[in-house]
Write a structure and sequence with these properties.
- The protein is of the alpha/beta class.
- It has two domains: 137 residues, Periplasmic binding protein-like II (D-Maltodextrin-Binding Protein, domain 2); 119 residues, D-Maltodextrin-Binding Protein, domain 2 (3-Layer(aba) Sandwich), CATH 3.40.190.
- Helices cover 30% and strands 26% of the residues.
- The radius of gyration is 19 Å and the shape is elongated.
- 45% of the residues are buried.
Length: 272
């Protein structure tokens, strides 16, 4: 688990539908590695403006972020997918009311080694690669080289979005390598000529992002949903934060001019 800023966990209790932390100047965040760059940049900016506020950011995956919120181990769960019905039910049973805040848009980029001549794949071709039906780049007009398939771990929100938007619930081949973060996929693809993987838009440096169905992943195509593998990014709180509290201002930072610039600077797509 990555740690950004050391801090102490703050217990969360419900009071009239508002989130009331024991220490309102301590905010604990846990969840998605994809949303991590935004969250850490928000935390750095906010603590620069409000030095009395301490924000801890962990990246244990979207599923673990949901669990942390349900278990009152964090104030904010960051997720690259919406909460599942089962997670909502578990939250309800625990007396937790998850409130959704969409903070940015993202495209899931299909990435290959920079030396790979392939420029464009269809959703069907990507699915065939990940099911094992296509095993060599020569079958796609590329070099005679086996395809090395890299995926996020199954606890990842990015994995679950990819499974829904690309795999159509078809099973990945048992040759698939699973890794724990966007950064790990990027490193594996950078160092492996035959590799293919998928990452959030902020993690394309050093790898080659392919067009999908003829569309490049850009802020415009992601917002217009013409890029076929696009999704919102979320923060969840237990109830609605008290107006003008540090938690309220932090989770609503995305809707300010400064927050939109941070989202853009970290490589994601701010909401219009």
């Amino acid at each position: 688990m990555k740690r950004f800023i050391a801090g102490t966990l703050a217990a969360v209790v419900m009071g009239g539908g508002l989130v009331l932390a024991k220490d309102v100047n301590k905010i604990v965040v846990d969840g998605s590695t994809t949303v991590g760059p935004i969250t850490k940049a928000f935390a750095e900016y906010y603590m620069g403006k409000r030095p009395e506020v301490n924000i801890t950011v962990s990246e244990s995956g979207s599923g673990n972020g949901a669990k942390s919120l349900i278990n009152a181990a964090c104030d904010v769960a960051t997720m690259s997918r919406p909460m599942k019905n089962s997670e909502m039910k578990a939250a309800q049973d625990a007396g937790v009311l998850p409130i959704e805040h969409i903070v940015a848009m993202d495209g899931i980029a299909m990435v290959v080694h920079p030396g790979n001549p392939i420029e464009d794949l269809t959703i069907g071709q990507i699915r065939s690669i990940y099911t094992g039906a296509i095993r060599n780049w020569k079958d796609l007009g590329g070099p005679d080289r086996p395809i090395v398939i890299i995926s996020r771990d199954t606890n990842s929100g990015t994995y679950e979005c990819f499974e829904t938007l690309v795999m159509n619930k078809q099973k990945m081949t048992d040759k698939t390598e699973y890794v724990g973060s966007n950064g790990a996929i990027r490193q594996r693809v950078m160092s492996t000529q035959g590799a293919i993987g998928y990452v959030g838009l902020a993690f394309r440096e050093g790898v080659k992002a392919l067009k999908v169905n003829g569309m490049e992943a850009t802020p415009e195509t992601v917002l217009a949903k013409t890029y076929p593998i696009a999704r919102p990014l979320y923060m969840y709180t237990n109830g609605r934060p008290a107006q003008d509290s540090p938690l309220y201002n932090f989770v609503n930072l995305y809707d300010t001019p400064e927050g939109k610039k941070i989202v853009e600077d970290t490589g994601f797509v701010p909401l219009k």
